[in-house]
TrEMBL record:
This is Shikimate kinase. It comes from the Bacteria. The lineage of its organism: Bacteria, Pseudomonadati, Pseudomonadota, Alphaproteobacteria, Candidatus Puniceispirillales. CDD domains: SK. One of its GO terms (molecular function) is shikimate kinase activity. Belongs to the shikimate kinase family. It is found in: Cytoplasm. The gene is aroK. Substrate binds at residues 86, 110, 132, 197. GO terms for biological process: amino acid biosynthetic process; aromatic amino acid family biosynthetic process; chorismate biosynthetic process. Its EC number is 2.7.1.71.
Length: 245
């Protein structure tokens, strides 16, 4: 969505006032029906036969690592709802993520992100695709680690950029929001974010490298890694492990 001047002024005024009916919001935000996997040719290669999913699965990692796309397919494999925190924020605010960055700034976006993730974590266990910066905010990270199984989808900056293609929907890949003086190209921004954010992403319970994998292979690899992890959790406590990281 792109807003005209008057609409933008209204949107700015509304950004602090989003509705608080918790149940209604969860229903609106989650895809209640189990979806057919999207953007994958043919049917899935694998059905999930692992331990039951009794806690939310949260996907974290840099823009373009596949949180939204792999997340939707994982939810279909697990037969549980899917939710995307960016979509939840956009529904609550009535404007796009890019517009929120433009109109209200990143700090406001992070507040909204925390609130929406908190709501999603309180609903039916779902696969939750977070935005790439969510797990780098200490409060949001501790909420996620506490309530969800957190999975880091790893990939090199070059891989990420080739997947993202058009950077319009990712405000942090534009210089005006890149938090650095001077002109950086999208690959330079992604490389810098990768360095700064890796220590945060390393706090995820599970690390899965998706470099060189197709969408289908990535979804299967993540599904198997989660099954293994849940089997271990059933006999011990959650700690970080890597899968091809
Ligand atoms: N393993 C993959 N192989 C090829 N393309 C991928 C893969 N994972 C995601 N993509 C594509 O990359 C783009 C960004 O993926 P997306 O799920 O939106 O990333 P994120 O939510 O982490 O920013 C989408 O067009 C998606 O179809
Ligand atoms: O990396 C980030 O800080 C962001 C990533 C975006 O989500 P994706 O990771 O799904 O692109 C979105 O939340 C916003 O543009 C900020
Ligand atoms: Mg996404």
């Amino acid at each position: 969505m792109s807003l005209k001047a008057n609409d933008r002024a209204d949107a700015v005024a509304m950004l602090g006032l989003f509705p608080s009916t918790r149940t209604g919001r969860i229903i609106k935000t989650m895809e209640q029906k189990v979806q057919k996997p999207q953007n994958m040719a043919g049917s899935l290669t694998q059905n999930y036969n692992g331990p039951p999913i009794t806690r939310p699965i949260a996907l974290v990692g840099l823009m373009g690592c596949g949180k939204s796309m792999v997340g939707r397919n994982l939810a279909a494999m697990f037969q549980i709802p899917f939710a995307d925190s960016d979509t939840a924020i956009e529904r609550a605010a009535g404007v796009t993520v890019a517009d929120i960055f433009d109109l209200a700034g990143e700090n406001k976006f992070r507040e909204m992100e925390y609130r929406e993730i908190e709501i999603l974590l309180g609903g039916t266990p779902a696969v939750i695709a977070t935005g790439g910066g969510a797990f780098c905010q200490p409060d949001t990270a501790s909420l996620l680690r506490d309530k969800a199984l957190v999975v880091w989808l790893k990939a090199k900056p070059e891989t990420l950029l080739s997947r993202i293609g058009n950077v319009d929907s990712r405000p942090l890949l534009h210089n005006k929001h890149s938090q650095k003086q001077g002109n950086e190209t999208p690959i330079e921004i992604l490389t810098r974010l990768n360095e700064v954010r890796t220590p945060f992403y390393e706090q995820a319970h599970l690390h899965v490298n998706t470099d060189g994998l197709s969408k289908r292979q990535a979804a299967s690899k993540v599904m198997n890694a989660i099954a293994d992890k849940l089997a271990i959790i059933n006999t011990s406590t959650i700690s970080s492990t890597s899968k091809g990281a």
